[in-house]
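Hi L., both proteins are below.
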Amino acid sequence: MSTNPLVAAISQIADEKGLSKEIILETVEAALAAAYRKDFGRPNQIIRVHLSSDTENMQVERIYNIVSEEEIKDSESEMTPEQAKLFKPNPQVGDEIVIPLPEEKNFGRIAAQTAKQVIIQRIRQAERELLYEEFKEKEHLLLNGTVQQIEGDNVIINLGKINGIMFPSEQIREEHYRVGQRLKVYVKEVVESIRGPQVSVSRADAAIVAKLFGLEVPEIAAGTVIIKSIAREAGTRSKVAVAATQEGLDPVGSCVGQRGIRVQAVLAELGEEKIDIILWNPDPVQFIINALSPAKVNKVDLDEENKGAQVEVAEDQLSLAIGRNGQNVRLASKLTGWNIDINKNGEKVDKEDKSIKEAETAEDQVDQSTPKVQNKTNETTVEETVIEKSDVK
């Protein structure tokens, strides 16, 4: 057939959309085949179009599948081996018969008109598929983004080629976002939708804390320090349990860094959130003791069947063990996986008791008097670091 002007446009489309020429060719060929069948063929015919980017020629073919005489159902697309002998020597069931079709005078114009929308739709689909594949590989990773716009309670984050959406449940409480603000987000989920891939991002997920430490602590990237578990209440406090895989390495000190320089970079991304870096221990009793730091624990009784732990502390340690609004013990429970109950001098603390409120008030006073950086090491009991954004110099 005559020279096809669509071929010249294929390279341009491929360059503009960042798609491979093969994808564009397949899309255009399918659209042209549909247009030819509509205007010059019949609905059940199998039409195939071949475009050559080298010769700029277009060949239209009609395809027949060879089936046995008993199986033939559609004479428009099937023929028997006996019928196929007119086109091919020794035809076998399962072969194809390819018949070149003649040039149609008006096909170039009709094809351009009929196939235009189909081509656009399929190119968009190909773009969506490429975007989905690209960002599906980035699922559960940390990306840099810019606040594009704020739609009601949702925040739209520009991730480059695509926008991510941060729902209210994935935002840090009390964190205020503004258009143009640069921040790091955790890619929580990438799903396909009618309008293309939908990327859900988070600032509240506990995994963002792990990813931030992974960026700032070389030992974590190398695998010599590992994060065993994280418990987080976004915007207020996180507890991170770490362990070393290399003998003699201090995992807590590695995460803090000299003069707190490593954790400072993490805190810069988390606003006013506190971070407790806890030394993980394979012994659940010792791990619970560590997780409740900076409180000093007198005794831990485990109920392994119900995954419960009765923890006894002195009265003057009650405030630290419980924490403001019960946060310290709540996070310790999440971190260790044990349901922790605090006992004061052997008596279980009633959550409705006024001593809880007294404990919270006392903890406020403790927070105000806390040294700028705490890095406590006790070889027999606890190694734990409590850090706030304003604590690191």
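That was the first. Here is the second:
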Amino acid sequence: MTKKQKAAFAATKLAELYPRITIPLDHQDPFTLLVAVLLSAQCTDKKVNEITPLLFAKARTPQQMMKLSVEEIRDIIRPCGLSPMKSKGIHGLSKLIVEEHGGVVPEDMAALERMPSVGHKTASVVMSQAFGVPAFPVDTHIHRLAYRWTLSTGKNVERTEADLKRLFPEDMWNALHLRIIYFGREHCPAQRHDPLKCPICSVIGRKDLFR
């Protein structure tokens, strides 16, 4: 099979398994999604969804969030890990959104990436899931599976993102990246994975998986 054929097989199988998809992070608008995605770094979605209601009860808008101190934010988000960095980032991006964007999260990748603690992946998630702009955020699940499925070399996430964007039609990106994440969690974990039983690895997986 060519890479294009493998990609087509994976996309078809993923659509069969996950015909309807939802964003795993609870949110109400672009700002709450931005904060939730930032908090999800090295933290489970489940834990983020437990913490964000507590944070948003105190501050649900950039205007409200910037009025909290960094220490107040840190005390609430501590269970998510990396709280010193994340609290400074949330406070800083809230202030920037108010002062430079009129209190509205900008629908602009470059503007998002300039915000404190907002990297390319976080910006891509917000662009795709909050604004519907085609993007292909690559997390550890997607990076791992793209390598397992021989769709990318696995050298780095930037290369993986570029490879996947070439292989899949743009109108698939926003749904496909979520489907791959769900599949990675439920069928294709990093450890104790049986490729022979995997609905996708068993067909297009790397040969060295079966040794």
